[in-house]
UniProtKB/TrEMBL annotation, chain A:
One of its GO terms (biological process) is L-amino acid transport. SMART domains: AAA. Belongs to the ABC transporter superfamily. This is ABC transporter ATP-binding protein. GO terms for molecular function: ATP binding; ATP hydrolysis activity; branched-chain amino acid transmembrane transporter activity. Keywords: Amino-acid transport, ATP-binding, Nucleotide-binding, Transport. The lineage of its organism: Bacteria, Pseudomonadati, Pseudomonadota, Alphaproteobacteria, Hyphomicrobiales. PROSITE patterns: ABC_TRANSPORTER_1, ABC_TRANSPORTER_2. Residues 5-237 form the ABC transporter domain.
TrEMBL record, chain B:
The lineage of its organism: Bacteria, Pseudomonadati, Pseudomonadota, Alphaproteobacteria, Hyphomicrobiales. The chain crosses the membrane at residues 6-28, 60-83, 95-115, 135-157, 183-209, 215-232, 239-259, 265-284. GO terms for cellular component: plasma membrane. It is a multi-pass membrane protein. It is found in: Cell membrane. It comes from Alsobacter metallidurans. This is Branched-chain amino acid ABC transporter permease. One of its GO terms (molecular function) is transmembrane transporter activity. It comes from the Bacteria. One of its GO terms (biological process) is amino acid transport. Belongs to the binding-protein-dependent transport system permease family. LivHM subfamily. The keyword Cell cycle does not apply. Keywords: Amino-acid transport, Cell membrane, Membrane, Transmembrane, Transmembrane helix, Transport.
Length: 237, 292
């Protein structure tokens, strides 16, 4: 597989506090990669850095082209959809409007219509809530909406920040099944940040372990699962 | 009874001006979360541009259209040049710049066109409206124009993609960026539209109060009162608030002897303070709730 995204020496800081100390990693085209780590390790910061939501240094190559230094809006136009922590839903807007916003960068009106129908087929609950304000949806429904909104971009790469956060176990399973299906059927590559390591390792084929702003371990998910350190610290057995 | 009806109608007529200003105020407030104290002066300046164009021989509607375009571009330019670099600055910096803009526009208008009072034509004529003694044609036209602008804004924000993007940029800039909305340009567009709406307000009001650099001073205050009364994030509320302020002001001036014509202006202040104390989000404004 060729690499879709390649990151070299990524550094980022919040004021005087350095959060990322030179990260190196790459994502396979069509694959699912997970970034594991404890609270404050720099997982969210990494995703924010990829989307130019914070100031960074280092190289970020998307399909071989450097994209560091571009604005968030332009990174999105490359086909990188970020589902932020807290889902980034427009709470006062209807479900339909949220999906329309996901397609902001697109000009193909018919394609947008078709995709919207496809989303309603993939996430039937969203069709039922079509005209409802997004803020009135349950947590799981909002997460579905956030994923659907991101897919409306027709992304090459999806960045998901703690998609399981605050959801009931059953809802989480449904969500991850959907993600796996989307990855398989629509060939969308994914980078998933998760505290629920067990779940993330199931879905992902590649994994990186990040500790205080540094990658300390990487490899196929299955291999990381076997690692004693990972097992003790993140899987709990 | 006839007097009451006449006063209410006259109140609605001046209310239409306030409603127009309030709309412009709300437009900016939606985009940047601040009140633009220079809004009135921007409107005044636009009106002078229209006047100048007519002095040069342009027919009314040509001048009107050109002024709208110039004001729109001017509003966008002000945002790009002055406010974009300040976007992360604290609110006080913005207030200072608003006041600076206010003073600059006021003085430059005085310098270019002097402070003498100038007549300004009305597109609706000055006769009575449909033969009625109660309301003049210009007043009726003003009310109509305000409602047309409101309808236009409603359609624009409700049914166009760019309107949706503008709303998204205002509601949640970070998420808007993540779906690819160019938030900075949306704000600039908001400034342009507010400036153009202000220009319409200025051109409609100038036939009534006559054109001079200070013509907007008190009107902006009434516009603020209307916007606050209706709710700073509700265009329809702002329009209704503007009309209400006009009616209240007029009735109080007529029926409360101590107020008369002289003390009308404090009514606007009284309304602003009253609304802020009793119902801080205005009659139609949303209470902004935030989960923490």
């Amino acid at each position: 597989m060729t690499s879709l995204l390649e990151v070299r020496g990524l550094r980022a800081s919040y004021g005087a506090v350095q959060a990322l100390h030179g990260l190196d990693f790459s994502l396979d085209e069509g694959g699912v990669t997970t970034l594991l780590g404890a609270n404050g390790a720099g997982k969210t910061t990494t995703l924010r850095a990829l989307c130019a939501m914070i100031r960074t240094s280092g190289d970020i190559l998307f399909e071989g082209r450097p994209i560091a230094g571009r604005s968030t809006e332009d990174v999105v136009r490359l086909g990188i959809a970020h589902v932020p922590q807290g889902r980034g839903t427009f709470a006062r807007f209807s479900v339909e409007e949220n999906l329309e916003l996901g397609a902001t960068t697109r000009r193909d009106k018919n394609g947008i219509r078709d995709d919207m129908d496809r989303m309603f087929a993939t996430f039937p609950i969203l069709e039922k809530r079509r005209t409802q304000q997004a803020g009135t949806l349950s947590g799981g429904e909002q997460q579905m909406l956030a994923v659907a909104r991101a897919l409306m971009l027709r992304p090459r790469l999806m960045l998901l920040d703690e998609p399981s956060f605050g959801l009931a176990p059953l809802v989480v399973r449904e969500l991850f099944e959907t993600l796996a299906r989307v990855n398989r059927e629509q060939k969308v590559s994914m980078l998933i940040v998760e505290q629920n390591a067990d779940l993330a390792l199931d879905l992902a084929d590649q994994a990186y372990l990040i500790e205080t702003g540094r990658i300390v371990l990487s490899g196929p998910s299955a291999a990381l699962r076997q690692d004693e350190g990972v097992r003790k610290a993140y899987l709990g057995y | 009874m006839d007097l009451l009806l006449q006063q209410i109608l006259a109140g609605l007529a001046s209310g239409a001006i306030y409603a127009c200003m309030a709309l412009a105020v709300v437009m900016i407030y939606q985009a940047i979360d601040h009140l633009n104290f220079a809004q009135g002066e921007m409107a005044m300046f636009s009106t002078f541009i229209a006047w100048q164009l007519m002095q040069w021989g342009a027919p009314y509607w040509v001048a009107f259209g050109l002024t709208l375009a110039i004001s729109f571009v001017g509003g966008v330019a002000i945002e790009r040049v002055v406010f974009k670099p300040l976007k992360d600055a604290p609110v006080l910096s913005h207030v200072v710049v608003f006041i600076a803009l206010f003073a600059i526009l006021n003085s430059v208008a005085g310098f270019l066109w002097d402070f003498s009072v100038k007549p300004f034509p009305s597109p609706f004529g000055s006769g009575p409206f449909l033969g009625s003694r109660l309301i003049g044609a210009h007043q009726a036209g003003m009310i109509g124009a305000t409602l047309v602008i409101l309808a236009f804004l409603y359609v624009f924000f409700r049914f166009t993609r760019i309107g949706l993007a503008m709303r998204a940029a205002a509601a949640n800039p970070e998420s808007a960026r993540l779906v690819g909305v160019r938030v900075g340009w949306m704000i600039a567009l908001g400034w342009g539209m507010a400036s153009a709406i202000g220009a319409i307000a200025g051109m409609l009001i100038a036939p009534v109060v006559f054109l001079e650099p200070n013509m907007m001073l008190s009107i902006l205050l009434y516009g603020f009162a209307g916007a606050v009364l209706g709710g700073l994030n509700s265009p329809a509320g702002a329009v209704l608030g503007g009309f209400a302020v006009g009616v209240v002001e007029n009735l109080a001036g007529t029926y409360i002897p101590v107020i008369g014509g002289e003390l009308k202006l404090p009514i606007a202040l009284f309304l602003i303070v009253g609304v802020l104390v009793v119902k801080p989000n205005g009659l139609f404004g949303r209470v902004s709730v935030q989960r923490v």
